[in-house]
Amino acid sequence: MAQYTIKDLARYVGVSPSTVSRALRDHPDISESMKKRVEEAARKFNYQPNQLAQSLQKKRSSTIGVIVPEIRHHFFSTAISGIEEVAYEHGYTIMVCQSNETLARERINTQALISNRVAGLLIAISSETTCYDHLADVLRQGVPLVQFDRVVEELPTGKVVVDDYKAAYEAVAHLASSGYRRIGHMAGQDGISLNGLRYKGYRDALHAYGLEYVPAYHLHGGYREEDGRQGAKQYLAMERPPEAILAINDPVAVGLFSEFRRAGLCIPEDVALVGFSDTPVAALLEPALTTVYQPAFCMGKTAAQLLMRQFDEENGTFLPETVVLETKLLIRGSSIARERRQ
């Protein structure tokens, strides 16, 4: 059966198409009785608005684009759930793309979403995104943009992050207070702001507790388990490896954990580990992984709420803001205090 249009409704009600259009949009110039007649006709004929026509008229659709490094990563999948909840409440759907931690795919995804006239864009940048001209282009085109978790500080957009410096500082302070003296950091790739903040927290905590910073203990890698396994091999090859390690995230910590175990080391007797993000697997390890809890669902919700606020302030009054969410160090068996042999 053919889909009814505004013109069909207008003929049925006996008014102009523009009157029907304004009635459906609850325009104040249309009487309540007319609005009721139009709504009854729309229900009778199961009228559905032409989303494509509306998007062309408004120069945007009712879809929000979301780009994350990896959907399979528990942190990002949880953040997407938070985004979807807010989008649904406001009558939007979401279209999710993953960059697979590459700048090239992030550029392609960004262009594809913009070409589909998304109402706005939410993004957590890839590990390779140190060049951000594609995101600057989004802003130049007037498309609302909000960044979350991994952000480009230089871009004037809404941002939702955690206090990465404080979280890393507290994690290293915990290790130092537990008696660990040689503390390493399995970091992410250079150029991403959160990596720099966590590194600074790590360095400052070492200094505060009178511990030596050993450059060899600060390794760079990616964000996956395999990066942790490769990092563990580098630590194992050292004559005096670290006694404890802060990993950039839980997958990297799990990679370190598995490779150290494969090499015959005991955790935390031989090496203590702390992760970041509190994925479900962290509590299932034996011993369970000490980690920094990040409110992923809340981060997604907050990012989407910032975007909705930007939609409501299209007249130029919107001012980008940065929301910093709290973290919590969850102390478990992988970093329990013990007597250290010097």
TrEMBL record:
Keywords annotated in UniProt: DNA-binding, Transcription, Transcription regulation
Location of the HTH lacI-type domain: 4-58
Example of a GO MF term: DNA-binding transcription factor activity
PROSITE patterns listed in its UniProt record: HTH_LACI_1, HTH_LACI_2
Keyword Transcription: yes
Keyword Zinc: no
UniProt name for this protein: Transcriptional regulator, LacI family
